[in-house]
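Quick one: structure for this chain?
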Amino acid sequence: MPGSMMNAEHREDPANAPQGPLAREAIALAAFDHVVSHAPGFRARPGQREMAAFIAETLAGVKLGDDSVSGEAGAPERGIAVVQAGTGVGKSAAYAATVIPLALAQQKRVLISTATVALQEQLINKDLPALAALLPQPFAYALAKGRGRYVCRLKLDQLAGGEAQDADLFGEEGAGPASGAAKDDWAQRARQYAQWTIALDQGDWNGDRDRLDEPPDPALWAPVAAERHTCTARHCPAYNSCSYYQSRNRLAQAQVIVVNHDLLLSTLGLHALPAPADCYLVLDEAHHLPSVAQGQFTSQMDLMRTGWLDPLPKAFEEVARAIAHRHDLDLAEATRGAKAALADLARLGMDLLGPAVREHPAEAPPLVHRLDAGALPAGWAEPLAQLQGHAQRLLKLAEALATQLRANARDNPGEAARCAEHYARIGRFAPRLQSLHDTTSQWLLLASEGAPPQAKWIEARVERGMVAMSAHACPLQPGSLLSGHLWRQVRGAVVTSASLVTCGGFDHFLHEAGLAWDAAVATREVQSPFDHAKQGRLVVVQTRADPKDVDGYTREMLDLLLADLREVKRGALVLFTSRAQMRSAQQLLERGEHARLRERVLAQGESSRTVLLKRHAQRVGEGEASILFGLQSFGEGLDLPGELCEWVFITKLPFASPSDPVGQARAEWLKSQGRDPFSELVVPATGARLLQWTGRALRTETDEATVVCYDGRLLRQGYGRRMLQGLPPYRLQRRQAGVTADV
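Got it. Here's what it folds into:
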């Protein structure tokens, strides 16, 4: 059941709910004040109430659910509160204690979307239970997960018995279990599936992969994961015991649903979540939203591995015969044509990448070739068009078969099990066919006059001695995607993070998030309650080597870093801008003179993040020095208060990789428009990342910490000073030739 601390029988009568904006604003703020006054051990935070009041005011005039205007003349129908809340404000309590009562008073629901699992767990396990215990109105809450996090009972039962419709069930390229080793593997997997079946039957497991004792290997989980293309929903014979639909039922009973940005965007229009127009939407960790949106609309197709197409004609023909479906598509010809087009594209891709691809180290990042301005090289248009046509015809037949199977299952319940098996057999091909169609369509798309082109690129790597190659495409403007697909459906929203302001303003985020020209948007920057100048220092080191001299700068920076690390008495965090840079530091530590220092270091990748943080806390708790080495993912979301993080060392300004094909394509297009991509995109994005990295230093009002940045451009260059405008007011110091002084 969804989490709930109160009996739903006591819910306020909606007939008595306040209707006017002023009344709604009052009830939201009154609820917030009630919560903070009754929370055990709570200490008033002016910034938190400022945020709550701003949210209440912005959302008070919102009318959810239809196109009519709200109760008062001239009141806006939409409201989007964009709030940067500095560290320590307590933003989750500010929005939850304001928006949830507002929704309950109108019998509406709240969607809270986050970017990280850590914040989801905090909301579900801590913040929402605490709020439910304090609010007079009851509410139930639940966590929404993607369908693929749940087991498909029909597939599980089939594979637990050692059956397999085709080898694609195990993700292989059409190679069945012919060899002895493959048969042994098949049998071992079947035994594991049988154990999961027993656990489900006995109630020891609920079908959620996250509830298994050990995370399953992806190759083991994929064949039994629930997925939309293989699901007949209520027509499936296992529907009543389906883990995914049981979770959907829990969501239907919840007034508050916690979700992640990926799932929110991927399910728009699919009715898996409440419609954005009919609920209040809270987007926490909203600075991730633009990149998530671009990821959602990026398409890719594998150019080399085509064996999955081999069993398609037989599967489609057998299903068509079984349900007496007549079609005029030559399946053998269509699949041959698709494979031939893919082979042509792979050959053309090899020509572009050159002979270096065959000598590319397996452990190295993939080789990337980007198409300038999205223009197709000579010879590409014809095989792309052929592949698009074959994929489209195969998808059309797949949909026709799926439609008839759903109808048969509905009209003949006795045939539901067989229809579900046929549906799953067809559905396994659908995502790959869709990828072929979407990617070719994006590659063939020509930009209209003045509009940005698609980013198009090829990636190649060596896997198990074989070249793997894929084609990718992505729209360039995340703001346009979000404006068209999300914001046009949203009536009332809170958009918040600790890093929405960069270089002193909201402009960059609003453009990237598609909100720059939205009249419903109101912005507010709520300051952190911390005394940054008293509690923290930001020391900018001026090196002799310029950071653009990668080798020279890295050598000098690492010497300075190791000297500083010897001064660490408790906890420290070192943030590197590349894995190669971190590896260089680790190699230095292997030298004899650094042996004692090496014992203090815990590096990302040596163990899981959870294990590293636990070990770090144990060391510091025992009075030892402990130093975490990490990359970008350690620069955000780590909460290391007090002695756990008295030092943050930033090895270099965290510019995005210059080899990113989407970033390159965006820069190319901006230049073609006479604009400056470095000033317009690179500097604000780096400033936002730097704000996150420096934010690891102070986590409570009693912390004291020092941030050391070895990249002197932060003080020396104009763009560095722009980035400083977006950082908290630390005591700023310059270190040069070993001498540190205030700036």
